[in-house]
Please model this.
Amino acid sequence: MSILVDERTSVIVYGITGSYGGAQVKSMIDYGTNVLGGVSASKAGMTHLDRPIFGTAKEAVEMTNANTAIFYLPAGAIMGAVTEAIDAGVKLAFIATEGVPVHDVMILREKAKERGVWIVGPNSLGLTSPGKAFVGSIAPEFTSPGGIGICSRSGTVSLAISSHLTMNGIGQSTVISMGGDPVLGRNPIEYLLEFNKDDETTAMVLIGEIGGMKEYEVCERLGELNKPLIAYIGGKSAREGKRMGHMGAIIGGAGQDARSKMKALEQAGAIVVDTLWDIADVIKGLG
Amino acid sequence: MNLYEYEGKAILAKHGIRVPNSVYVADETELGKLEDMTYPCVIKAQILQGGRGKAGGIRPVNNVEEARAAARDLLSKELKGERLAGVLAEEQVSIAKELYLGITVDDVAGKPLLIISAEGGIEIEKVAEESPEKLVRCYLEPGGMLDSDSAVQLCREAGIATGGMVEIIRALEKAFREEDANLIEINPLCVLDDGRVLACDAKVILDDYALFRHPDAPKHEMLEYNEDPFERRAKDNEYIMVRLGGDIGIISVGAGYGMAIVDAVKAYGGSPANFVDQLGGTPFERTINGVLDMSEEDLTIKTVLMSFMLSASSLGGLVESMLERFKSRPPRVPIFGSIGAASAAVRDMDLQTAVEKLESAGIKMFQDAREAIKAAIKYAGEVVE
Model:
C-alpha cells in the first residue's frame, strides 16, 4: 500500500503547455504516470505531449475518468480552476503554484473537505509513492519502495530526505511535500493519520519548520498514532520576524520557533532529531 | 505587507469603521497641514514596530506651535532603530472604555479567527495570559459573512453592551475579506464619553500573495537605518538573505533545504554566515552572486558551502550560472559542494557532467551533503586569521 497516490492514479493537468509545468509532466509520463490529458479553455481540441487538451474539467473527467488534477497555473487562476475540478469529481488536487492568496486557499480547503477531496499544497512539489506513482516533482530516482511515510512542509527537504534514506538502504511508502504556505489543503496530522492506517507504512517522518502552530496539533493528537513518529523542525537559527523563504516560515507569536516545537513534540512522544541527516540512523535503531 | 497606523485606519474608514479626526504629515514640507487640526491633539510617530508610546513616539500637544515642534523633532530622528514614515496628528479623545477587536488567519483551522474582548488596551497580552476566558473567540466561514445574531451573541459573551458593535464587527469582517488581510487588529477600540465608538489604533497586515488584485494597496518595506547591506541588496534583487554572523557562506536552493543546511552547519560545530532563498521565479545567478559577493567583500568569511537538491528546476542553468561567475571573478575562498539532481532537472545536463564541470572550476565536490558540510567546517576551523 501507500497513501493518496498509487497504480490507480490517473491524472489531468492544468497548465500542461507551460514551460515549467510541461517539463514536469514530461518527466511524469516518462516514468509511467497515467497522464490522460490537459485542461485549457483556450487550447481545447489541441494535443500536447501526445495528450488531448479538454475545454473543461467536467469534459476531461467524463472522457478520461481521471481521479487526480494537477495545477501548474498562475496564482490568480487557481481559485476558479480548482473549484471547477472539484465540481467535476476529482478526488485529489495537487496545487504546485506558489503565491495563491490565503483567502482563496481557505475557501478551497473548506469546499474540498465538504466534498471529500484531498488538496495537496499549494506551493508543493507533489507526492511520490515509489514504484507506483509519481505526481509532481519528487523524482522517483531519489526514492525507493519501503515502509517509511514522509510528509514535509518543504519541497526541497522532501527530496533531500528521500535521497538520504534511499542512500542508506531505507525505502519509503509515500513521500509528500505538503506545501510551504501558512494555510494548506490538509494539515500534517491528516497525512500522519493516513500513514497510520496504511499497512505498508511502518514509521513516519514529519518535517516541520518555524512559523505557524500546526505541529502542536500533531502533539495533541499523537496518541491516535500507533507507529513511531520521527520529527525534524527546520529553522533553529532563524531570526525573529525575518521571513525565511516560505510564506509560512516567519517566527511570529509564542511557540512558533523551532526549539519550542521540538520540545513539545518530544514531550508528546515523538523522536525528535537535531539535523535532517540523523533520521536514517534513528530509523535503523528502530529495528 | 505590514501597514502603518495611518494606512490601516484609512482602510477601516473606507469600510465604515469610525476613526479619530486626523491629518497625516509625511515630512517637514507638510507641517502646514497641522493648521487644520483642533487643539489639544496628539502627534503619533508612524513606525511598524509596537511599543512606540514607551519609546516617546506619542506626544500630546496644546497648540499648533507645540504640534510643529513635536512633529519636527520626531521626523528628524529614528524610533527603536526604525525611520519614521511620517507623523499622524489626531484629535484627543475622552475615553470611557477600551475594547479589543481583531481578526487573524488561523493556520491550524484554516479559517479566519475573530477575537473580541471587553478589556482592550496595552495590557491585552496580560489579559490573554492571566484570564484567557475574557478573550472570546469565533471562527468565521471563509468567504462567508457573520450573521447579526451571531455577532450579538459574541458581544454578549464578551460582556460588551455598547451600541453599534454588530455593525462594527460585520464591517471588520468585510474589510478583512475584501482587502485580503492576514490580520486586522483594533486595539483599543474606544467607547468615548460622548458615546462614539472609534478605532484608536490599527494594526493591519495584507496578504503579499494577493497584491496582484489590489493595485492601489500601499507598497513599502520597513524603513530601517541599520540594515545589513547584503540583506538590502538581496531585497532589491528579489531574493531573501538573512545574515547569521558566522564564517561559512551558504548557497542553497529552496527555503526548507536552506534552513536544514544552516541547522546542520551549527549542529556539527560550524558557524553559518547566512541563509539564502531565491523566491519563485528569481534566477539562480542572483542568489549565487549575492553570496559570492558577500564572501568577496566580507573578509571574515572563510569558505563557502553550496548544496542543492533539484528535481524541477534546471541543473544546467544553475551550473552554467556558477561557471560564468567563476570565470568573470575567481572566488576568494575555497568552495565545498554537493548536488543531488534527477527528473526534469537533468533534462539539459546530467549530474555527472555537472559535477565534473564544477570540479574543474575548483569546487571540492562530495556525494553526500553531510560530507560537504563537515569538510567546510573543518576548513573554516583550520584557517589562521
In short: Residues 75-88 of chain A form the longest helix (14 residues). Chain A touches chain B through 69 residues (CB under 8 Å). The CA atoms of residues 24 and 30 of chain A lie 10 Å apart. The first strand of chain A starts at residue 10 and ends at 14.
